[in-house]
């Protein structure tokens, strides 16, 4: 009775839409125009720190360190020359250094071989000078070499051993400000430290742009990089490369825009080709794509309306929605043109199509959305947004399909129906090749059911043993094509100098002047040397930069430059006196390493770039080792983007496993409710889990890790592949209730659902194989695995699903009775 009432309502709804297409389309157009007004506000955001919500304690701690000590996401310019210490190279380097300071916007400070601090002193006075004072040529090459030798902290940090490579390190401003309000582009040091450290600068510090402190936005960081690249382009005689996290963010944005445009175009072209091949009608192309494109527009407008941005994984959403939601239209079109070809008019044909497909389409949209929505429980903002807004897009696509298709089909100039004098089965299966393929699967499932089930069981068993060995990965460099300069630049700087990724360690004594403790500092120096000499957590530390370098350098300078005095002084009073001497000449150096009250200090560890997850053991070992060594003098905590992402990724790994299980449970429960049978719902899930497990086993065979993209495959696929099973099981249950014969029910299920399932499988596979054209390995792998999952899911639905439904039929009959 309920199904009859629903069918009658769907017929009345379809009839009303088809009788009033213009009001329906006009209302929809107004609604879409209103949503589209939000699209100009939508921004692309590649900043990795924005992967974490600002309300999270880890993000707040990260921001606190940035506020106190400035940014640690610096830009590194690698400079290669035959001899970087020659007058010619130093002159060119000085010219580039000066132009960056004067011409490139948003630059707070530039550090290079030229202005690296060099200390000279007597027993009671200290002078902190630039390593290479202006004008270049004042010092001989031999003198510069002596200065480098007397400053051990510089070796490997700003110049390599064979003197063919050096760097300029560019620190952007921490806060946004109005350049017109600044009289000098000097640093904001005085504003931050007041009179705590004396400084010769009388410049006025830039003020934040609005109320409260606003960090420099990523758009201005990109403006800085663009201007920097322009200055590098006109620099002759120096081979320069750019690296650092801001550069990675910039090239990620360029990659995202390029990849998104490519994927959308290719996906549309391939889907148009498939629809033409299967339906051979213009209406079968234009109407489905209209619905899906409007769904994409509405999805991204909703993203903008919610105040969110387009982050890296969301570039998949347009192609993703194009591929999966066109399946709804395929089901409607299949039933519509089948009825239309038998002589029914467009109104009767559409009423029949909506009556037969609306409920299964709603159910499949709900299961797909449920699978995607489980991703929203994660802590990574882009993954949560992908799950939430892709789920919204799926439901929007369903709503637009059942609204647009009747409205547009009532207006479309269709050719006269072609009456088909053929058997009902032939009409159902459609064209010859499609009919032949489906009939072959019907026979195979009936003749070789036990054999098919055994093959799938063996494949799943092998895949499970492989899937449990999968490893996780998080490497933003792998999100970009290998041909991009940033990849080579990072490798070059890692090989030539200390590295391109860093981690800060905060040493907090909890009391004013707590750092002026020689015993604590000596112990800290000893442990840092041990960490640098070893491989904590399997990671090599390229360089350590801290207050200790200044203290040891000052003590050495005040003792005639004797290398034996490059150490922490034993006397607390002597330590305090030497720090006062350094403050008088090098206060700006201190501001980036220690708090004004000497309560806490920042240590920066520089390492070669690697997968961020490889640093998890290193972070734990480093923090524990330093904490144990400095007890009870100080507390130790790690800071910076590296530990921020590492901590979050630990939770992501747990959340991913949770989302897999949650998606499977949620969809299974929905299947049970939708098919009105606990047993049938559980049985119907097996053909959907099998191909996903096989694909995960394939990942291990191919050496593909679970990363930001590939970890989405299982959750996405399980929500999509179940759609076809719902359609097939729905038609099987209906036919079995009417006939009581399992073989006939399977045959009818293939007749009613088979053509659409085959078409949808081809569209999904082709739509996701589009990502094989990506130059980004992670996206390539996502496309390969997803497309293969949908291909295997179609094979499973045509082989394993009929076998399991026939096996469960006796119990289903009892449930029905």
Structure description:
With 817 residues, the chain is of the alpha+beta class. Helix content is 62%, strand content 7%. It has 25 helices and ten strands. It has a four-stranded antiparallel beta sheet, with helices on both faces. A hairpin with a 4-residue loop joins β3 (117-121) and β4 (126-130). α15 packs across α25 (777-816). The longest helix has 40 residues, at 777-816. The chain is elongated. The two termini are 16 Å apart. The relative contact order is 0.11. Residues 183-212 and 420-431 have low confidence and may be disordered.
Number of strands: 10
Strand content: 5-15%
- The helicity comes to 55-70%
Largest sheet: 4 strands, antiparallel
Radius of gyration: 33 Å
Helix count, DSSP H or I runs of 4 or more residues: 25
> What does the average pLDDT come to?
86
Trace the largest sheet across and list its strands.
2-5-1-6
Ranges where pLDDT stays below 50 over 5 or more residues in a row are 183-212, 420-431
Structural class: alpha+beta
The N- to C-terminal Cα distance equals: 16 Å
From the spread of the alpha carbons, the general shape counts as: elongated
């Amino acid at each position: 009775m309920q199904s009859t009432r629903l069918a009658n309502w769907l017929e009345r709804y379809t009839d009303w839409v088809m009788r009033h297409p213009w009001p329906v389309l006009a209302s929809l157009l107004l609604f879409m125009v209103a949503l589209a007004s939000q699209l100009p506000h939508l921004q692309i955001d590649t900043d990795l720190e924005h992967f974490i919500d600002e309300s999270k304690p880890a993000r707040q701690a990260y921001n606190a360190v940035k506020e106190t000590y400035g940014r640690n996401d610096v830009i590194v310019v690698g400079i290669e020359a035959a001899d970087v210490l020659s007058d010619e190279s130093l002159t060119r380097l000085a010219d580039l250094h000066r132009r960056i300071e004067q011409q490139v916007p948003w630059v707070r400070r530039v550090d290079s071989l030229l202005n690296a601090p060099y200390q000279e002193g007597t027993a009671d006075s200290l002078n902190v000078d630039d390593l290479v004072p202006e004008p270049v040529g004042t010092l001989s090459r031999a003198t510069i070499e002596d200065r480098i030798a007397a400053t051990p902290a510089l070796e490997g940090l700003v110049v390599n051993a064979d003197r063919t490579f050096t760097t300029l390190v560019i620190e952007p401003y921490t806060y946004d400000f109005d350049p017109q309000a600044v009289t000098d582009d000097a640093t904001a040091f005085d504003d931050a430290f007041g009179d705590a450290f004396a400084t010769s600068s009388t410049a006025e510090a830039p003020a934040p742009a609005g109320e409260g402190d606003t960090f420099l936005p990523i758009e201005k960081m990109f403006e800085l990089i663009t201007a920097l690249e322009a200055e590098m382009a006109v620099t002759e005689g120096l081979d320069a490369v750019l690296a650092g996290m801001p550069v990675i963010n910039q090239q990620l944005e360029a990659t995202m825009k390029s990849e998104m445009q490519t994927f959308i175009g290719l996906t549309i072209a391939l889907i148009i080709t498939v629809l033409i091949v299967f339906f051979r009608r213009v209406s079968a192309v234009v109407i489905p794509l209209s619905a899906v494109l409007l769904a994409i527009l509405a999805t991204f407008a909703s993203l903008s309306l919610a105040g969110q941005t387009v982050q890296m994984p969301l570039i998949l959403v347009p192609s993703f929605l194009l591929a999966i939601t066109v399946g709804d239209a395929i089901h409607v079109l299949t039933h519509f043109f089948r009825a239309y070809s038998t002589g029914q008019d467009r109104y009767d044909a559409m009423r029949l199509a909506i009556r037969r497909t609306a409920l299964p389409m709603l159910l499949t949209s709900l299961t797909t959305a449920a699978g995607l929505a489980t991703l929203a429980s994660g802590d990574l903002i882009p993954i949560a947004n992908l799950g939430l807004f892709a789920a919204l897009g799926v439901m929007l696509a369903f709503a637009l399909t059942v609204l647009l298709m009747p409205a547009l089909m009532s207006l479309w100039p269709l050719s006269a129906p072609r009456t088909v004098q053929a058997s009902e089965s032939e009409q159902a299966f459609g064209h010859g090749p499609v009919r032949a393929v489906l009939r072959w699967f019907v026979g195979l499932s009936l003749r070789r059911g036990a054999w098919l089930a055994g093959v799938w069981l063996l494949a799943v068993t092998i895949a499970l043993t492989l899937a449990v060995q999968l490893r996780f990965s998080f490497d933003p460099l792998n999100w970009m094509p290998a041909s991009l300069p940033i990849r080579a630049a990072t490798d070059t700087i890692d090989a030539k100098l200390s590295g391109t990724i860093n981690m800060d360690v905060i040493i907090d004594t909890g009391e004013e002047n707590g750092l002026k403790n020689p015993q604590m500092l000596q112990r800290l120096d000893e442990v840092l040397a041990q960490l640098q000499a070893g491989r904590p957590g399997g990671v090599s530390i390229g360089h350590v930069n801290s207050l200790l370098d200044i203290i040891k350098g000052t003590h050495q300078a005040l003792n005639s430059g004797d290398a034996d005095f490059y150490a922490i002084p034993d006397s607390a009073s002597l330590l305090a006196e030497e720090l006062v001497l350094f403050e008088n000449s090098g206060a700006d150096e201190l501001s980036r390493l220690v708090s004004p009250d000497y309560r806490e200090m920042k240590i920066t560890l520089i390492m070669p770039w690697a997968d961020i997850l490889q640093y998890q053991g290193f972070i734990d070992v480093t923090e524990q080792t330093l904490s144990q060594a400095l007890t009870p003098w100080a507390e130790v905590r790690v800071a910076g983007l590296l530990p921020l992402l590492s901590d979050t990724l630990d939770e992501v790994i747990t959340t991913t496993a949770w989302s897999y299980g949650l998606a499977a449970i949620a969809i299974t429960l929905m299947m049970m409710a939708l098919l009105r049978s606990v047993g049938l719902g559980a049985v119907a899930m097996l053909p959907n889990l099998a191909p996903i497990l096989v694909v995960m086993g394939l990942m291990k065979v191919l050496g593909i890790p679970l990363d930001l993209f590939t970890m989405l495959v299982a959750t996405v696929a399980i929500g999509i592949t179940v759609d076809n099973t719902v359609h097939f099981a729905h038609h099987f249950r209906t036919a079995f209730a009417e006939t009581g014969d399992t073989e006939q029910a399977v045959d009818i299920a293939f007749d009613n659902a088979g053509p659409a399932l085959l078409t949808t499988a081809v569209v999904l596979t082709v739509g996701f194989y589009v990502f094989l054209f990506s130059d980004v390995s992670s996206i390539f792998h996502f496309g390969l695995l997803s497309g293969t999952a949908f291909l295997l899911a179609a094979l499973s639905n045509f082989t394993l699903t009929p076998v399991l439904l026939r096996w469960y039929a006796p119990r289903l009959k009892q449930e029905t009775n």
